[in-house]
Amino acid sequence: MTKKGSIFKVISSYFGERPLSMLAWLWVSLMPILGSSILILNYDRLSSWPLKSSIDFIVFTGVAALLMGLALLPTTLTALASGFFLGWIGLPFLILAYSIASVIGYFLGRGSNEGLLEILFSKNPKLKNELESRKSKEGSLVFFVRISPIIPFAISSFLFASMEIPLRKVLIFGIPGMLPRTLLAFGTGVFASSFLAARDSMSSPMQWGIGAAFLIFGLLGIYKYLKK
To answer: H helices of 124-166, where?
Structure first.
């Protein structure tokens, strides 16, 4: 208990000395909720912006990447809306947007939490040894964190950057980890009769069951990474 308390004390001290870092974590935690509310209240406006040309889809990819990368929209709701408004043709562009958003979120997290890992190592050298011994398993951690619905996309991007997991691993293992939930939300949007019906169907018993399966699978993978 003392070790955990000291780590949390170091993190609290770090945020106290770097208020912008604390604000960044609050941003990625709260803004997706606000963004979701705004999208749901204004979803009808999206239907007036049909995508027809290649340029339109390129613009969509860039806008979606910025919205998710800057934590202005959660990835699941973005996938749901993309499936409803674009259909299956929009799936490759959404996956590309996910990849770009991962890069944006990663660099924002690295810039916002610069020096955090070094401070933790200086206060707890054993932590460095623990993380070093798991270097070969970083990819599995990324995969299971991404597939778990309990850890939001923006927060996990900050987490990977803070742990100094290479961006290459975040992309190689993170995108496959996101695909199952992405396909579920995207397909729900494609087959929905309305956007609100698509949103409501995400709370159906079947969706909860699938989400619970993803959660258990992800937590088991994270536990396997953490246990000695």
So the answer is: 125-132, 138-147, 153-162
In total, the chain counts a number of residues equal to 228
82 vs 23, 57, 94, 186, 199, CA distance in Å? 29, 11, 7, 7, 12
pLDDT tens per residue, range 194-221? 888 877 877 778 888 888 898 898 888 8
Residue 121 has what pLDDT? Answer: 74
How far the first Cα of the chain sits from its last, in Å, is 17
Q: Where are the domains of the chain?
A: 53-226
- Counting Cβ atoms within 10 Å, is residue 105 exposed (0-12), middle (13-18) or buried (19+)? buried
Which amino acid is residue 100, in one-letter code? I
C-alpha span between 176 and 189 (Å, rounded): 20
Pull the structure tokens for residue 81: 């809306």
Given pLDDT bands bounded at 50, 70 and 90, which one contains residue 6? low
Residue 24 corresponds to which tokens in the numbers above?
A: 């960044």
Q: Determine the Cα–Cα distance for residues 103 and 6; give it in Å rounded to an integer.
A: 31
Nearest to 72 by CA among 153, 174, 156: 153
The Cα–Cα gap between 147 and 218 comes to: 6
Q: pTM of the full predicted structure? A: 0.85
pLDDT tens across 56-68, in order?
899 999 999 999 9
**Residue pointed to by tokens 């949103």:** 199
Cβ atoms < 10 Å from Cβ of 20 = 9
Residue with tokens 């509310």: 37
H helix count then E strand count, the chain: 12, 0
Residue carrying the six token digits 């009769």: 193
